[in-house]
Amino acid sequence: MSFFRRVGTLFLDVVETVVIALAIFVIAYLFLFQPHQVRGSSMYPNLHDADYLLTDKISYRLSQPKRDDVVIFVAPKNEEYDYIKRVIGLPGESVSITEDYRVKVNNEILSEPYLPSDFKTFGGTFLEAGRTINIPQDEYFVLGDNRSHSSDSREWGFVPRKNIIGKAWFRYWPVSQMGLISSQKSASLNQ
Q1: What is the Cα–Cα distance from 100 to 110, expressed in whole angstroms?
Q2: Which of 25, 33, 45, 89 is deepest in the core (most CB within 10 A)?
Q3: What's the per-residue H, E or C state across the chain?
Q4: Does residue 69 sit within a domain?
Q5: Structural domain span for residue 111
Q6: 159 and 135 in contact (C-beta within 8 Å)?
Q7: Is residue 19 in some structural domain?
Q8: Which residues partner with 121 through β-bridges?
Q9: Is the peptide bond between 91 and the residue preceding it cis, with omega within 30 degrees of 0?
Q10: Looking at residue 188, what is its pLDDT?
Q11: Which residues have a catalytic role annotated?
């Protein structure tokens, strides 16, 4: 076999490998997992500014978002951006914020073990403290974990199901915080 034929065969092997790798990457990116960067402090203390996450885009094709899931969705006011928040209220439920800064779902205080005990949930423009709202079908009520520094459903309303990209699944940066993102399920809706 001549030198040029070997170089040609090697070149074709490399091109084939690159094409297959790119095809796998594109399929994974479009249908399975998508990287996202946390921007801002709205999910503090559980996620931090500049954390890098992988978003699971498969789960919600097979099931619906659940309470306490951390989700990525198309921002309601600017569709060029994606937001990350925690699902608090599900379709068909009622949500309110009490005068003592706690969240109620279906008239029961929501247990939120993922929040420090001194965090308070204030009302907003869309959901004022002391008012109850009902969540329409195919829409969700979401809040940032850092309630005093989060633009969320209290201000701009519900998130349509079609806007949810996926579930925050894995933090890969910083390396010291690498691991699965737990939804840290509420013990119950009761106190």
Answers
A1: 13
A2: 89
A3: CCHHHHHHHHHHHHHHHHHHHHHHHHHHHHHHEEEEECCCCCCCCCCCCCCEEEEECCHHHHCCCCCCCEEEEECCCCCCCEEEEEEEECCCCEEEECCCCCEEECCEECCCCCCCCCCCCCCCCCCCCCCEEECCCCEEEEECCCHHHCCCHHHHCCEEHHHEEEEEEEEEECHHHCEECCCCCCCCCCC
A4: yes
A5: 33-180
A6: no
A7: no
A8: none
A9: no
A10: 44
A11: 42, 85
Distance CA 160, CA 142 (A): 11
Examine the pLDDT at 183 and tell me if it is beyond 60: yes
How far from chain centre, in Å, is Cα 132?
24
Residue 151 domain flag = yes
CATH classification of the domain holding 124: 2.10.109.10
pTM (2 decimals)? 0.83
HSE of 53, CA atoms in CB hemisphere, 13 A: 28
- At 109-166, the pLDDT tens digits run 999 999 998 999 999 999 999 999 999 999 999 999 999 999 999 999 999 999 999 9
Confidence of residue 30 (pLDDT cuts 50, 70, 90): low
Task: Decide if 16 is inside a domain.
Answer: no
Total domains present in the chain = 1
What contacts 140, CB < 8 A, 6 or more positions away? 65, 71, 87, 89, 90, 91, 153, 158, 159, 161, 164
Residue 189 has pLDDT above 70, yes or no: no
